[in-house]
Automatic annotation (TrEMBL):
Segments forming domain Tryptophan synthase beta chain-like PALP: 32-295
Entry coiled-coil feature ranges: none
Cofactor requirement: pyridoxal 5'-phosphate
A Pfam short name: PALP
Keywords associated with the record: Pyridoxal phosphate
Similarity comment: Belongs to the ACC deaminase/D-cysteine desulfhydrase family.
Residue(s) carrying N6-(pyridoxal phosphate)lysine: 46
Species per Swiss-Prot/TrEMBL record: Nitrincola iocasae
Protein name, per record: Pyridoxal-phosphate dependent enzyme
Regions crossing the membrane: none
Length: 320
């Protein structure tokens, strides 16, 4: 895939001011940057990540895009809609049992015309293995391969374009907090960062700082960036998509009392880490801290019951 895609022209991003006692008491200005509002179905960062893949598909009419994801994948959901919208056929290789085809995420994907292929966890683990991709070609014919999460080298570059949509605000940012799954979004943001903004990366899985660092390094190498700086990686404390009673209670209170709606897999964890750092006085009074809302709200449908059931199990103080 060509790396010389033109910069992405995207709608400006709304800054939602968050008014929490936590912020007042520590003199912090907190904003949620509503990247999730970029498109009603092509969620948040996935809109940016998919643009180069869609451009490539338009250069090869008739060839489907094939990509990978779990049963509640925001990427699969976004790709299915984007494919329908652009008249591009899509194939989703889904980890796990075909019974998940009836969940809301995959129901949408099928309604939007995506063909689903279910593979065992063992096969899914081979998603970057050229021999496995070859066997997919043998059964499914020609396709354009897009990695899990849409995290291609070109996608890393287009995530850097998020900054141009952010520049709409009059209030200069000091810190931007971003979730990481594959780390491609964070890698792109860090590489294209304005000198005055430092980026914090919060993993959505149980993973060490060193492991996230090596993911970022691999993305930068693939996209041709040299060792960017001005960022900090925080450790990932919970396995992917796992909830704790504290996180469930935090989600509930943010949504019900403060009008802050986050997704439980990515941005809720980012908020949790961010609030801890405010409590630890990591930011000077007057600092403007922002959380990038990368979207993923469709995934809430798979978590809402669990969030409501778990939240009352937490009795400690919340970091608000
Ligand atoms: C996919 C996703 C991420 C992670 O993006 P990566 O580029 O894979 O790190 C973060 N937030 C949300 C809501 C997502 O859907």
């Amino acid at each position: 895939m060509s790396l010389v895609n033109p910069p992405i022209v995207s709608p400006p991003i709304r800054y939602q001011a968050v008014s929490l006692p936590l912020c007042h008491n520590f003199g912090i200005q907190l904003s949620i940057l509503r990247l999730d509002e970029t498109h009603p179905h092509i969620s948040g960062n996935k809109w940016y990540k998919l643009q180069p893949a869609l451009a490539e598909a338009r250069r090869h009419p008739g060839r489907p895009i094939l990509s990978f994801g779990g049963a509640f994948s925001n990427h699969i959901h976004a790709l299915a809609y984007a494919g329908q919208e652009s008249g591009i056929a899509t194939i989703g290789v889904i980890r796990g049992e075909a019974t998940s085809a009836s969940n809301p995420t995959l129901q949408d994907a099928q309604r939007w015309g995506m063909r689903l292929v279910f593979v065992s966890r063992k096969d899914y683990a081979r998603r970057y293995d050229p021999i496995f991709i070859d066997t997919l070609h043998q059964t499914l014919g020609d396709f354009q391969w897009v990695p899990e999460g849409g995290s291609s080298a070109a996608a890393i570059q287009s995530c850097g374009d998020i900054w141009s949509a952010l520049s709409a605000s009059d209030v200069p940012l000091d810190y931007l907090f971003c979730a990481a799954g594959t780390g491609a979004t964070a890698a792109g943001l860090i590489a294209a960062r304005p000198a005055s903004v430092k980026v914090f990366v919060v993993p959505a899985l149980k993973i060490s700082v060193a492991e996230v660092e090596s993911m970022l390094q691999a993305h930068w190498a693939a996209a041709g960036f040299l060792q960017p700086d001005g960022y900090q990686v925080l450790p990932g404390c919970l396995p992917y998509a796992r909830l704790s009673p504290e996180l469930a209670a935090l989600w509930w209170q943010l949504s019900a009392c403060y009008g802050v709606d986050l997704d439980p897999v990515y941005t809720l964890r980012v908020f949790h880490q961010l609030s801890r750092l405010i409590l630890q006085r990591r930011f000077k009074p007057g600092t403007h801290v922002a959380l990038l809302h990368t979207g993923g709200m469709q995934g809430l449908r798979g978590h809402a019951d669990r969030l409501r059931r778990m939240a009352p199990a937490f009795y400690g103080p919340l970091p608000l």
